[in-house]
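step=encode ok
step=design start
structure_in=
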């Protein structure tokens, strides 16, 4: 079998394995009793709502939402490109399947996208000239990784799997260009990738940083690519940036913010273009280095506030961000209830030695004598550093968890040249063993509907709220975790949700918390006049006893661990007459407790 045929077979097999693993979320994405497909993961609910609205309503894609963070409304942090692209695919699917559930299509897009990311990873391995056994290890690790499953799981239409695509495209196009720096088309492709990335997530402008770092190293060493090639890179970067910014309403409105696709991103692209031009125009001297550093400091001044805001997001200092799983670092996860086992179940045993990749590839980059090797070293250090910062950023460095070590092994060990089958088997066993915890603890388990036990438990109540909001839409008050769920299912508005990026978002979280800690009587006086419904639910109503069995917690415990409003709405029989219970889920009749209620607030006479 030719090498091309072997690589094609490896891609197909690994992609099908990855897709099969991604389908392990089927229980979370499909509600059997109603035959309903639902999004999986909190942010997927909002993506789904915006995509469906863009595909099926005359308003199309909205970038400012008047129905969240009411009454102010809020710009949507996610830029236009991902949801708009998904909406175009949904429109076509609905033409071919009239009357079909939109979520039936959307839920499976991430699964099939696993084939594309596998192809990009294969392309990187080919560019690095790895032999077939080593490539097989990398693709096998990708296919069985829980990190891949949480990107491509059925129903997980959050945009992180597209962010992974753009990371892989940056690595692939960067390697292709720097292996043949005089190829202008390759420089253009890299510039297009970097310029387009922020249209899919505002934070992806950061992909320009490792490219600039690489060019700086090459400049210092006198290895800068030719001027024509550098001009092609910078021109394609700035032109693509302008092209993807024009559809952004925040850009057209004159905003300069990291949180939305705005002039901030044009400023970053222009700065990168200026630096690339400087590397191409001037040779390295201590004097020129000094000027470059001075210009860099001056260019930082206009974006200082946004830089601080981005640092707050990465550090988890924004209100409630530290409570969200995807915002926790591997170290924070290791200090939590699951301990190191929790980290291993996501990242495999190789995750424990991932920090070692940073000094290893710093040394590798220092010793590298060709531009492509320098770039790879920078991308590994950059990606692994972000991977160690937050779980949600794992896709920046997950490609290196196995590839980083495989590349070193392929250079140090020549066994694959004369014992390819033995090398392959040994490598697959090693990777399978390192991933065993993830396979048993993340794949061979049942996930709750929507990947949230609270959502699964209260799913039956949403039908009641849907009907009520259709008849008389208004604000449905709930905690921030249910904000996206209510926005997805109903025509009602919400005060707070899990968009946690701007001062407005933090203020709305505090407003929600203050209202939730009032008595039902106080709430009627303090709540905004458009609040017409309350989705009141108790948390922590089950606990583990000393013998290990789960049982209902005490009333005193529930009172202490739930906001006052939600506790009293679910425990009192003497609620004010303006509260009308539309539906409820029982908990303990002997104590007069229910675990969740949908309540309508009647107008004051």
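sequence_out=
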């Amino acid at each position: 079998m030719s090498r091309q045929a072997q690589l094609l077979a490896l891609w197909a097999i690994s992609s099908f394995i990855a897709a099969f693993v991604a389908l392990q979320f089927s229980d979370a994405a499909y509600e059997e009793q109603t035959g309903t497909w639902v999004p999986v993961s909190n942010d997927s609910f909002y993506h789904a709502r915006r995509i469906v609205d863009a595909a099926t309503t005359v308003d199309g894609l909205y970038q400012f939402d008047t129905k969240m963070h009411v009454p102010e409304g809020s710009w949507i942090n996610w830029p236009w490109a991902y949801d708009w692209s998904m909406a175009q695919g949904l429109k076509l699917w609905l033409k071919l399947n009239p009357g079909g559930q939109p979520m039936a299509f959307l839920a499976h897009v991430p699964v099939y996208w696993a084939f594309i990311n596998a192809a990009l990873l294969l392309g990187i391995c080919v560019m690095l000239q790895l032999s077939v056994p080593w490539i097989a290890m990398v693709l096998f690790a990708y296919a069985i990784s829980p990190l891949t499953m949480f990107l491509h799981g059925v129903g997980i239409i959050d945009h992180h799997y597209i962010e992974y695509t753009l990371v892989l495209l940056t690595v692939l196009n960067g390697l292709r260009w720097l292996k043949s720096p005089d190829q202008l088309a390759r420089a253009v492709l890299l510039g297009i990738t970097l310029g387009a990335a922020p249209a899919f997530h505002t934070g992806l402008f950061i992909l320009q940083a490792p490219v600039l770092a690489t060019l700086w190293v090459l400049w210092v060493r006198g290895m800068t690519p030719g001027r024509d090639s550098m001009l092609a890179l910078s021109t394609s970067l700035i032109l693509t940036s302008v092209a993807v910014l024009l559809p952004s309403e925040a850009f057209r409105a004159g905003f300069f913010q990291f949180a939305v696709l705005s002039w901030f991103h044009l400023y970053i692209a222009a700065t990168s273009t200026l630096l690339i031009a400087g590397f191409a125009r001037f040779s390295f001297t201590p004097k020129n280095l000094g000027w470059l550093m001075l210009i860099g400091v001056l260019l930082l001044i206009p974006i200082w506030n946004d830089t601080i805001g981005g640092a707050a997001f990465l550090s988890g200092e924004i209100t409630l961000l530290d409570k969200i799983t995807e915002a926790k670092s591997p170290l924070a996860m290791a200090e939590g209830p699951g301990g190191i086992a929790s980290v291993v179940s996501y990242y495999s045993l190789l995750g424990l030695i991932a920090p070692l990749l940073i000094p290893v590839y710093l040394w590798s980059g220092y010793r590298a004598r060709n531009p492509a090797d320098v770039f790879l070293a920078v991308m590994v250090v950059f990606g692994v550093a972000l991977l160690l910062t937050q779980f949600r950023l794992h896709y920046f460095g997950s490609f290196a968890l196995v590839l980083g070590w495989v590349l070193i092994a392929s250079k140090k060990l020549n066994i694959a040249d004369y014992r390819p089958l033995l090398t392959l088997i040994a490598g697959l066993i090693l990777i399978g063993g390192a991933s065993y915890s993830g396979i048993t603890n993340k794949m061979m388990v049942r996930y709750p509907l929507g990947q949230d036990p609270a959502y699964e438990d209260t799913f039956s109540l949403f039908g009641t709220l849907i009907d009520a909001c259709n008849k008389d839409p208004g604000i449905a008050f709930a905690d921030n975790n249910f904000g996206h769920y209510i926005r997805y299912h109903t025509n009602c508005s919400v005060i707070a949700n899990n968009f946690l990026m701007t001062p407005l978002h933090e203020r709305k979280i505090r407003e929600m918390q203050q209202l939730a800690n009032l008595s039902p009587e106080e709430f009627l006086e303090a709540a905004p006049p458009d609040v017409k419904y309350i989705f009141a639910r108790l948390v922590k109503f089950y606990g583990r006893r000393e013998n290990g069995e789960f049982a209902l917690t005490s009333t005193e415990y529930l009172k202490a661990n739930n906001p006052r409003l939600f506790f009293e709405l679910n425990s009192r029989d003497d609620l004010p007459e303006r509260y009308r219970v539309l539906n409820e889920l029982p908990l303990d009749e002997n104590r007069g407790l229910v675990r969740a209620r949908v309540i309508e607030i009647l107008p004051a006479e």
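step=design ok
step=annotate ok -> The first strand starts at residue 30 and ends at 31.
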